[in-house]
Every structure is written in C-alpha cells, then in structure tokens.
Amino acid sequence: MIRNGQGQEASSSVDLNCGSKEALLLDTLHPDSVQRIAELEAARPMPMEPAEPEKQTPQIVKQLTVTAPNSDGPAETQSLHFDAQYTPTDDNTVLVEWLHNGRPMKNSNRYHLTNDFGFAALDINFLLTEDAGEYTLVVSNAVGEMKSLIQK
Fold it and tell me: Fewer CB under 10 Å: which end of the chain, C or N?
C-alpha cells in the first residue's frame, strides 16, 4: 500500500503460483532446429589461403605517350597529358614513379600523378618553360624494373 502527501492510498496485489519442476516444458517443439543451431555454432577449420603467385618483372605494355591540346605541340599555360600501361596489375608491391630530367616528381596543384591497375598517367596543368625536358615512367618491384621515357 502506498499513501501520498494528501493521505490518499493506492494498493496493488498479485497472486503467484509456483509449480514443481516436472511441470516445466523442457523438450523442444522443433528438434531439427536444435541440430541446425549446433551445426552453425560448431567450430570450423580455417580456409586454406591460396599460395601467392610468383612475382613477375614489370613490363611496359603501352609505351609512354603524350597528348597535347593542339597538333603544334604544347605551349605555355596549356596542359599536357602523359600515359602508359604496365603489368603486373595484381602485384601490390609495384612502385610507380615519375621522373622529370631524372628527378622524382610529386603530386601538386600543377602535377597530377595517377596509378591504377596497370594504368599510369601524369597531367601537367599550366605549362611553364621549366617543364621542358625528359619525362620517365619507372615501374619497379622486388624482381626488377622497367622504364619508359619521352622527350618534351
């Protein structure tokens, strides 16, 4: 019984009947389900990982080409696009590097280097006179390296 500050009372009651252990239903209604749950929860052997394929020496399958916005060749303030294709495409240790006059290039607001599944591209925006020279694509891994170069 509960009484509030104004003297009002409220009560609640419940009847509880307890049966014996024999009254409990312990058998499943779906015996096949219990077996299936046991199968799903059983430990499984670890799957065998396939052997890693032997590493291949990189190959340039499409030599480095350049695309200029007009047939006269690139001019200052224009853009330039280089691309090439290489194999292997499934080797996660392949390193793709672009060189300008023998010096490594990095992504910047003017230089955009792309490398994706055997495709390598270099885009140069807003050409300057110092962009003239030799461009080299170097594809390497632990087995060897290949180069493709072009003079612009």
Answer: N
Per-residue pLDDT of 50-109, as tens digits, reads: 888 888 999 999 999 988 777 677 778 889 999 999 999 888 899 999 999 999 999 999
Following DSSP, what letter does each residue of 26-65 receive, concatenated?
A: -S-S-HHHHHHHHHHHS--PPPPPPPPPPP---EEEEEEE
In a domain, residue 26? The reply is no
Whether 10 shows a pLDDT value over 80: the answer reads yes
Beginning with the edge strand found earlier in the chain, give each strand of the sheet holding 111-116 in spatial order.
Answer: 59-67, 80-87, 119-124, 111-116
Count of beta carbons in the 10 Å neighbourhood of residue 110 = 13
Work out how many domains the chain is built from and give that number.
Answer: 1
Query: Would you say residue 133 lies in a domain?
Result: yes
Residue 62 CA to residue 79 CA, distance in Å, equals 22
What is this structure's pTM? 0.65
Domain assignment of residue 106, yes or no:
yes
Structural domain boundaries enclosing 121: 59-151
CATH of the domain at 140: 2.60.40.10
